[in-house]
User: What shape does this take?
Amino acid sequence: MDNLDFMEKFKPKERCIKDFKYWIVCIRESQTTLGSAVILLKRQTESVGKVLKEEAAEFPSVIKWYEETCKEKFGAVKFNYLIMMMHDNFVHYHAFPRYDNDIEIFNEIWHDDDWPRAIDFKKKNVINESKLLEILNFMSK
Assistant: This one.
């Protein structure tokens, strides 16, 4: 994980769930829904249109791993993805597992307030760092 300074806001060295050749999946500080993550291209480019063929070819494997992990670990039933790049001008996707039932894990009950509508990613559910690391470690096993 060299040369990721441009994405330091997302703390890739501390919050990496899974590292791929071209992409990295990091836990989001705001757990809008349980398992919310950001999927970051490891190369700095400001446009999805500039993603290289080999980077694009790996992306379905990244999504497959993320969705299977969230389904297996938490019981996610759908997924929402957002790519806006308004404040962080590099290719990255915000990923939100969706739940039709409450999940009781990590000594908490997690509820998807927006189900079955589109995710309201502006809602903040910032949790303490130790809980975030607990989720990260659980997902990365």
Summary: The mean pLDDT is 94.
